[in-house]
Design a protein that fits this description.
Elements: H1 5-20, H2 25-32, H3 36-48, E1 52-55, E2 63-66, H4 68-81
Antiparallel strand pairs: 1-2
Length: 83
């Protein structure tokens, strides 16, 4: 699978932001400044790979949090970026 650079950067940004604090979709959209399509695709991928999970508290109050696997993956990406 070939990854779009914006998509990969968006996923990395989401993981990094969620390590700081849980965020809902609207906040992620405002901060990342990417299209809804790119954000939705990124979130869906991260959820499917168990790198983030949805803390479901109702439609508008749900937020996303990074999982332990997501934290490990983010640290690995940080290390790779140093090369």
């Amino acid at each position: 699978m070939i990854f779009d650079k914006i998509w990969v950067q968006t996923m990395y940004n989401i993981l990094t932001m969620l390590e700081e604090k849980p965020l809902n979709y609207a906040n992620l959209y405002k901060i990342t400044k990417v299209s809804h399509d790119t954000l939705q695709k990124s979130i869906r991928f991260l959820l499917e790979k168990n790198l983030i999970k949805k803390d479901d508290k109702g439609h508008k109050r749900s937020s996303y949090i990074v999982t332990d696997d997501g934290k490990r993956y983010s640290r690995l990406l940080d290390e790779l970026e140093k090369f």
